[in-house]
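Appendix C reproduces, verbatim, an entry submitted by the partner laboratory led by Prof. M.T., so that reviewers can inspect both the input and the predicted structure.
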Amino acid sequence: MKKFIVMFAVLSVVIPVSAQGENPDSIEARQLNEVMVKGEKPQIKGHDGIMVVDLPAIVKDKAVTNILEALGYLPGVVDNNGMIGLAGASGVTIILNGELTNMPLQNLYQLLYTTPVDRLKNVEVMYTAPAKYHVNGAVINVVLKTPTPLDGLQGQVRAGYNQGHYASFGGGLAATYAIKDWTFDLNYGLSRAKTWNHEQTFSNHLFEGNRTMIEDDMRRISENLTNTVYASATYKRFRLTYNGQITYSAKGRSLSDGTLGSFVNNYTYDGPINYHNLAVRYSAPFGLTAGGDYTYYGEKRDQSLMQGSDCLLGEHNRQDINRWHIYLDQQHQLGRWQLNYGLEYQRADDSSSQLTYPNEDAGGFSGTTVEDVADAYVGVQSSFDWGLSFNVSAKGEYYHNSYQHNWNFIPQLGATYYKTPKSIFQLNLSTSRVYPSYWELRNGSSHINPYSKVLGNPALQPYLNYSGQFSYIFRQKYVATLYVQYADKATVQLPYQSPDELRLIYQTINMNYERTVGLNLNVPFNVGYVWNATATVNVLNRRQKADHFHDISFDNSKWIFYGALNNTIRFSPNCPVSLSVDFTYISPSMQGIADLSSLWKTDAGVKWQFGRKRCCELDLQANDIFNRWSPTMTIHHAGQDYRMKVYDLTRNVKLTFIWRFNGFKPQTDTSIDISRFGTGG
């Protein structure tokens, strides 16, 4: 759990990154009476406060094979070990073809990873998503190619091998088929993963007037076999979609040696972890869209803390979630004006429990929590001949669960001024509400060792995030974004040394606020066809304040620098081999009362296309070659004295083979947001 906390802290700092490749659609130079004319397809367009990015052209020569990896090369986006962030936004939601798919985050990323990058048409980056998307805040909309009956059956087969501390491997099949009014899509992925983490902690604990140093050296091993399925069938204006992920043979173990002795923490699952989502959507010819989906998530996890052959503490964790979601949208086109309005309702029943042994009175809980979210919105969208286009919307939202209820007003504004391709100006203002995970709202606990434990927090509140971004796009490829974010009652989870006992506590709590102001620059450049590069710089000031972080307070701020240089090299315009080398650096940063060390990494890749019409592809990637993308966390504040050094093996080598059949130019991937599911503390 501590690893997840630290990597989240790193991601919250590393907001932007991007790299752009050679434009494959450049128009060849032609000689006309000794006048050379050369055109270049624009990488970025803008309208209604939305950036439309030609991502397939940007990553054409990169050693990337799937949509998840490709998203890391969007302007203003960072792919931090598979976690996607966006410059100037506290969080970002990934949607597919303008539709929200209510999938858990880890499932979404797994599905994006199994979807071929060839299926991309373009990507829309929205700092302020119109209310009709049913998403608050920033959005990345993955727009996919649509097959036609003339294409026949098209597909792609993929096999990959990843060598980190342990070996992992996987494969997948993606296929599309269209006939008359029907369109079918299938995406299946199978992966066998085994991971290793290592960290050392030094807790100089103040208790009853004396300091006690508690050291711990922990290694974690986890493994699982995961099946991911996306299938859809579309008939005219009606679509039925299934998203699913079933994880088998999941287990984990942590080995701890230190001041208190040697301990083993075993994590096992009674049966597979199940996620299933079934969605329907109908779009009427008169502007009405109606849809809904049902989601089930089930997990049964056992944890046992052992010292030798003695079981010190065990926990049976169970989570069963049934969630229903329906929406109704109406759109009217009134000349140059578009009017949107609609309703949405979501209900979730969380039946979870935790039983402890051998001491049944050591804690635990059992019961069902019901959550209701309902909203109504109205929005207006228009464009004018003199260059302005905009969308504005307002939504009223009601939130209720067993512990609290509240009303929220959520306004959104996105505007673009675009008179000539040379200069595009965009302004975005948005409000979003961030909800805690279902398990965090329970009064449960999870012991890391006899000294450290993770506690739930039934009093945890959702928080509101206000953000604004002003972007200048020069020549449809250079981007500068000035941004500000203010998160009222933002949440944080950090280690806390209890003054009442020798106990280290991890618990997510609400702060007073978090405020971030920054400037992000994205500058692509090239030297002929040989060298294509993108430089990214993000400078920001972050402030976090809490009057009640357990029984202490803090008010910390820090200037943070992020820089990246992504490079692609080709030896000739039609060379089947391309090379990439990427450099990334983050200056010392902070989260709450904790200071984080600087980080840097170097990644490299080779892409080779061969076979008839280059239907085969071989990609070799080496990530974090020098293994320096792991932070050190230090806390020296109000009597708290703690240090954690992460020694994870982030260095890995990945080899992927791809075979495309029947001229495959695939269409899609889908998204799973599992961020609120799971019993992990």
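Residues 252 and 673 are 23 Å apart (CA to CA). Additional entries are available on request from the coordinating office.
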